[in-house]
Amino acid sequence: MSPSPNAPIGIFDSGLGGLTVAAAIAARLPSERTLYLGDTARVPYGNRSPATVVRYARNNVAFLRERGVKLIVVACNTVSAQGLGGLADGGHLPIIGVIRPGARAALAASEGEIAVLGTPGTVRSGAYEQAIHEIDPQRVVRAYACPLFVPLVEAGWLNHPVTYKVAEEYLSPLIGTGVDTLILGCTHYPLLRGVIDEVATRLLGRRLRIIDSAEAVAAAVEGFLDEARLRATATPRRRFFVTDAPEGVEEIAARFWGDAVGEPLKLEHVDLVDKG
After folding, report:
1. Which residues have CB under 8 Å from 19's CB, separation 6+?
2. Residue 253 burial (10 A CB sphere; 0-12, 13-18, 19+)
3. Residue predicted with more confidence, 269 or 81
4. Most buried pick, 57, 145, 181, 252, via CB within 10 A?
């Protein structure tokens, strides 16, 4: 049975960074209902085995499926890179990850080499390179692990001198390359877009095209809903669930959610049973 157009879009991440994706979807598709699940009790997924990542992701999908979502967005680079194929269960619920939309957007924008900034796990997976090379096998892709960006964002050091120094360290390998487009390959990184843009321009003497994977995913969701004729017409409602206590993380969550839709964020706690 086809889902109702007014059913919600389900979005999940291992933590709170995926709220940048939820915010981009809310800004681009203001009439859509959304359900966000942040698995904060088991974050991070990046140091887990692929089998464990798939198991956790299936739990998240089951939670959202039980609530009647019409589409699931995997707003987690680790799951998108390592476990997306493991989420197929013979059902008809469509699933969109963050890797392919970002890769397609980068190819559309780039005329030269493409660089990916990501967590060590995402970079090790080679998922962005694979997605880009499926479309353009000859394209040069350079991937760089930027592990300190995540704690800097969560600490709120978005314009701190230390953040600029770290960005210089991570972006200096771009000097002398033919990179003209940069993918922000982690849901935390859009909050550092201004710093990354400023530092890259200073180091290279030219502006790079920067691909925000959250915006690319929102565009992919819009395209899918239009093609499937599933655009909502009802008054939107947005709910946000976390698997650990919400107290103490509201400030971080609000930072990721931002003010794109002028709507406050309220976290609700849910116990997510690991079904193994």
Report:
1. 13, 36, 38, 187, 240, 253, 256, 257, 265
2. buried
3. 269
4. 57
Q: How many CB atoms lie within 10 A of CB 223?
A: 12
Residue 47 has pLDDT above 80, yes or no: no
Element (H, E) at 211: strand 209-212
Query: What is the pLDDT at residue 1?
Result: 63
- Closest listed residue to residue 185, CA positions, set 235, 260, 130: 130
Helices (H) and strands (E) in the chain, counts: 11, 10
What is the Cα–Cα distance from 35 to 71, expressed in whole angstroms? 10
User: 76, 115, 195, 211: which is the annotated catalytic residue?
Assistant: 76
Q: Where are the domains of the chain?
A: 9-97+215-269, 99-213
Q: What three-state secondary structure class fits 27? A: helix
Q: What is the pLDDT of residues 249-272, one digit of tens each?
A: 999 999 999 886 777 889 999 998
> Which one is catalytic: 19, 69, 84, 186?
186
Assess whether the region 9-97+215-269 and the region 99-213 belong to the same CATH fold.
Answer: yes
Whole-structure pTM value? 0.91
List the structure tokens of 65. Answer: 């499926």
Q: What are residue 218's DSSP bridge partners?
A: none
Q: Comparing 120 with 82, which gets the higher pLDDT?
A: 120
Does CATH place domain 9-97+215-269 in 3.40.1780.10?
no
- Answer positive or negative: Cα dihedral of 64, 65, 69, 71: positive
CATH classification code of 99-213: 3.40.50.1860
pLDDT level of residue 181 (50, 70, 90 thresholds): very high
Average pLDDT over residues 178-185: 97
What pLDDT, on the 0 to 100 scale, is given for residue 67? 94
